Every structure is written in structure tokens, then in C-alpha cells.
Amino acid sequence: MQTYLEFEKPIAALEGQIRELRSVGKESGGVDIIEEIHKLEGKVSQQIEKLYGNLDAWQKTQVARHPMRPHCSDYIKALVEDFVPLSGDRLFSEDHAIVAGLGRWQGQRVAVLGHEKGADTQARVKHNFGMARPEGYRKAIRVMDMAERFNLPVVTLVDTAGAYPGIGAEERGQSEAIARCTDKCLQIGVPFVSVIIGEGGSGGALALATASRIVMLEHSIYTVASPEACASILWRSSSEADQAAAALKVTAQDLSKLGVIDRILREPLGGAHRDRERMMADVGMAVSEELAQMASLSARDLIDQRRQKFLDMGRTGIV
Asked: Which CATH number fits domain 61-312: 3.90.226.10, 3.40.50.11540, 3.30.70.20, 3.30.450.20?
């Protein structure tokens, strides 16, 4: 069942008519309604192209959070062969919000880490809606250490509203774990590519996205705080989230101008959720291309270039 966003109501109405016509066609014993269906399908394509060609920051935020958008586990299943999951931080427990392991990305041995939100209610509860606790970030540090030890490139798939803000997480050192994970990202001497596949929120995202190359999907977002949180702070009401989203420059297009990200990956018309297989294949190819560009660099060069990249952010472009 297709899930429609608020601004997609015109598309929902047209596709509802198409489903009704197909149902009538079956019940009437083969009444020729193909031509009418084709006309409506053409209108749907035009409407999708019109809407998605002019999305504002808040609408992109909604698309980035679409429940049918491919998640970390989907990308791993589609792109990583012989995936071996690694669990636990060797200090406290396992955190299912971050998936980590080793495998082959289009034939190349890599370490893969990512936030997993979950595709249904049961999975969302298990993975804590992609909001990691300290043990998740410490697990990430452990896997990145292993990747460097065995000279494995690191690929991260970022999709989180932010780190989990619960009392238990704070008691176990949430901010310290995020800081150390971010620092580890800057220290590893292996090729490192991060892909913002959905929502990149706050330090919870940055802890896995301090990479040599940062790729963002066209309708994903990356921000210091969620639009709702920002609106609550500035205007004492989350109802101003659309205004906050515009001010925060959350879109891939704005962040590219600022030099925060390196590459924007186009999504299928209507968003990644409308052609999941194509989107995952495009991400697989993009990551392989970025890794290939870094293959000849020494560990020292990789570390120096990564650090300089973050020092240079925001010095040019829009403000």
C-alpha cells in the first residue's frame, strides 16, 4: 500500500482513480479502459514531476522520513555480499539502532555501519527508531578500529533523527561516546565514504558521517537539529517547523553550496521510495566510484585531507 505525504494529495487522487478503473475493468469482464488509464498515468507523471521539481525544505524533510524509503538494512541486503554482522561494544550491550559488520561492496571488502530505523512497528521498537545509545557509537568505534587494522575501507549509511536522549543514555556517557566516535572518524587511515540516505540529524548523524567523502541523496536532509526541535527552541512551538527547515539549510542543494557535502545523488522521480531497487543500485555505484578515487592515497594523506575538509567547511558559499 502506497503511503502519501501531505503535499502528495493530487497524486493520491489520480492514482486512486487508476486503481478504481482497473478494478472496474476486472469486474466488467474486460471493458476496454486501458486508454483512460494511460491518460491518468500520464497526468500522474506530470504531477509528480511538477511537485518534486519544486520541493521546499520542509517537504524534503517529509520525503527524507518517508516510511517506504529504503533503510540501511535494505542497502546492506542489496549491495553487500557475505555480510557478517558484528554486535556489542564489549563494554555494556548491543545497540540495534546501529548495524555494523564486514562484507563485500560490489566485490570490494569493506566495513559497513549505519543507522537502522526499522520498516514496521516491531522493527522500529527493536532498532529504537534509529536513535543510537552510547553503546551503539562505541560499537562503531570498535568496528572502525578493526577496519583500520585490516586496511578495510569504511562505508556508513546515515539515517537518524539524532542520538537517543534518554536518561540511561546520558548516564552512560552519550555525549562522550559521540565525541569519541567523531574523533575516530577523523583518525582512521582508510578510505571512508558516508551516504546520507534519509535523515541526518545532529551529532547522532555526524558521529558516522565525518568521512572523506559525503554523499547525499537528492531529497535527504542533514542538519544540526531537527526542524521541530529548532522551532520549539526559537518560537516555542513545533508548528513553525517549516520555517525552521528553511532557515537551517537542511537540503542537499544548500549543503553542497556550503561545501558540507561532496556529491548529490539524484533520486528516482517521486523519491527513492518509488523505485527502491534503482536507488539502491545507484548508491552502490556511487560508493564504489568514491572508494576507487581514494584507493591510491596513503593513510597519512587520507587523514590529512579529511581533517582539512572539515576545517574548510562553511568558509565559502551561502550564509
From this structure: 3.90.226.10
